[in-house]
Amino acid sequence: xxYNEKMYGLGSKRSIIREIFEYSKARAKEIGAENVYDFSxxxxxxxxxxxxxxxxxxxxxxxxxxxxxxxxSAQGDxxxxxxxxxxxxERFGAGINPNLIYMTCGAAASLSICLKAVFEGNDxxxxxxxxxxxxxxxxxxxxxxxxxxxxxxxxxxQVDIEDFEKxxxxxxxxxxxxxxxxxxxxxxxxxxxxALCEVLKKKQEEYGKVIYLIADEPYRELVYSGVTVPYLMxxxxxxxxxxxxxxxxxxxxxxxxxxxxxxxxxxxxxxYLCVCGAGRSLGYVCAPSLFQQVIKNCLNxxxxxxxYKENRDLLYDxxxxxxxxxxxxxxxxxxxxxxxxxxAYKFYEKAKKHEILVVPCDDFGVSGYVRIAxxxxxxxxxxxxxxxxxxxxxxxx
Length: 397
Ligand code: PLP
Fold this sequence. Notes:
This protein is of the alpha/beta class. It contains 15 helices and twelve strands. The strands form three sheets. The chain has a seven-stranded mixed sheet, sandwiched between helices. A three-stranded antiparallel sheet has the order 9-12-11. A two-stranded parallel ribbon has the order 1-10. Strand 11 (359-360) and strand 12 (369-373) form a beta hairpin.
């Protein structure tokens, strides 16, 4: 081969989500988009808040082209980083400062940078909690690490602390926590977070090394029924937060987010410089300038999550009544449903015959489940309900 075999593998490997996406488009042409119940993609259906477009219009009127379209500092505009650190301090009292914030092209870039920043090579390991966002494997391996999967508690999909403790060893360098979770929608309770951090503190002492906690938080703002998402910096010093506005402001195509390094972290400023170095080495310098400024003006803006909540309730209440098993999600916009047969792929194929498109989740580290992304219109959910019912009945026959 005259090219990188590993990259060829990543580029050419069949992705089930991409496959479903292509199928969905083709099927919509055949039978009409309104008759295809596509729950495959985590693309927000709720529009960005009005403040976003207002900010863009105002910025175009009032700011110079050089500011809006030129390079910023590699780590992001200082004014933007100051506004974000003030907002973090107001909300979470984290005592952060702008020189610990690094602007990125969304959570994917934030994660890739953090992993690259902390791995030293030598087969170091990163623990993830199943079910997990499938791209973690790609990001971890690309940073030179090895993924280790911790199995969740049955039914609740909370972290199984005993299993987690067993998975840590002297090679563990990092742990990724994603709550609200993709694909389960579960929010890890404060009790879970406290227990997890206690284990980490104990293991750091035992092995005499730092273990980094990487909080992947694109769904932080998408929570229902007043549930609180613990801010991990307040529970564990060696925490890096990977934040993204992709879901919280419905801006996934704009590629904007940030990394925040906990000021209480051991050698925080040096770790921040590692983040800057990793950003540089990966070519992730200067996140989109216009959107850095937009974010500065929209720090208190919120998407209307009522539409997601309505979809969640409709799906959860009806699907459980039809006999499906799933944990009621407190956040994000995913429902993690047990397939009605052991092989989730076969179940996905049968659902497809009812025009329902869901994602089989074996690659997310839990087999026998599918993910329903309910960031769709309410009409899609309402249209799909009889199809879900018919599918359940087909299995009962
Ligand atoms: N982490 C999780 C858990 C996600 O679900 C996603 C996107 O769906 C990402 C990271 C990547 O987000 P971004 O679009 O901000 O790169």
